[in-house]
Amino acid sequence: MDGNGKRTSTARRTTADARGEVVVLLIGMRINHFRAVHQWLPVLLAMFRMLAELKKEPGRGLLSRVLLTASPRTYYVVQYWESKEKLYAYASAPDAFHHAVWTKVNRMERDGKLGGHVGIWHETYVVPEGSYEAIYGDMPAFGLAAAHGQVPLERRGRTAKDRYAYRTAEAGGKTG
User: Fold this and answer.
1) Among residues 28, 29, 89, 90, which one has the fewest Cβ atoms lying within 10 Å of its Cβ?
2) Contact 36, 129 (CB under 8 A)
3) At a CB cut-off of 8 Å and minimum separation 6, what does 65 contact?
4) Whole-angstrom distance, CA of residue 29 vs CA of residue 39
5) Residues of the chain above pLDDT 90, percent
């Protein structure tokens, strides 16, 4: 903007530089009973501890994450992973905090000690190339672009149809 509040350049449009398969994990919790803080607060804190562990150990495969809320009761994280193999490896690694948490949750469930005060959930998507597209206008790298890098929109196509049609050389398709 110039001094008179008028735009002096066109909007900068970008897209994610994702190549090949994209792995997305949505994972979260829902507070079912607000008063049961002793039940849901440890779950929330465990979520943050796992994210800190993954940030400290990038070799585990987490590329990026976005923390979100769907309501005052529901909190979740959108995670972008290098591969489903790395996601599975982290989820089952005996030295990872996730393993300790799931061991405790499974034991509590088996012993009938989960009182329904907090709900937990996850959804995992493995998206093949050609089945995702993204556009960002005047945005820093966010979401898929934060995980895989950001390129000018023209490299992948001005329209969603063009971006869906984009294929990397490795996939045997057109590259722009």
Assistant:
1) 89
2) no
3) 51, 54, 77, 78, 79, 80
4) 12
5) 75
